[in-house]
Amino acid sequence: MRRVRTNEQIWAKEVRLIDENGGQLGIMSRDQALEIARNKDLDLVEVSPDSHPVVCRIINYDKFRYQQEKKEKHQRKTSKKTELKEVRLGVRTGEHDLEFKRKKSIQFLNEGRKVKIELTMRGRERAHQDLARQVINEFLDKLKEEASVRVEQPVMGSPRGFSCIVSKF
Known about the structure:
The chain has helices spanning 30-39, 61-78, 95-110, 129-146, and strands at 14-18, 24-29, 43-48, 54-59, 84-90, 114-120, 149-158, 161-168. The protein is α/β, with parallel strands linked by helices. α3 crosses α4 (129-146).
């Protein structure tokens, strides 16, 4: 939770004041607003520090903090986390293995996950980058025939080989 200034911590000279029921009390000095909040046995809380003048609200700070934490917890709980699955290929990977990895990739995509396709090259295979690029492009083409796939990160070279990230439309 971001730090919220309350009562004497508010440094603005003028504030726009909102009472506990949501009604606007107008623009006044911070000291006047503090006096009104103390008379009601509530706190003066800075709601919008970036506006001019600063917007403050008269509320119970503990209750406000509890509601903010509850709202943040709910947002964390409902946020969708996309999991990145990885499929590794090689230049010499057999046709049956490629078919199996293609089916597994389609399964991951149907589950709503992103798939990182990584082709690693070892030793002297690095001399034949055109062959490696051809293998990964053929794999992508077969994947696109089977499912509606969007390439999020195009095929890029890395020191160990090539990789790309795909997801479902």
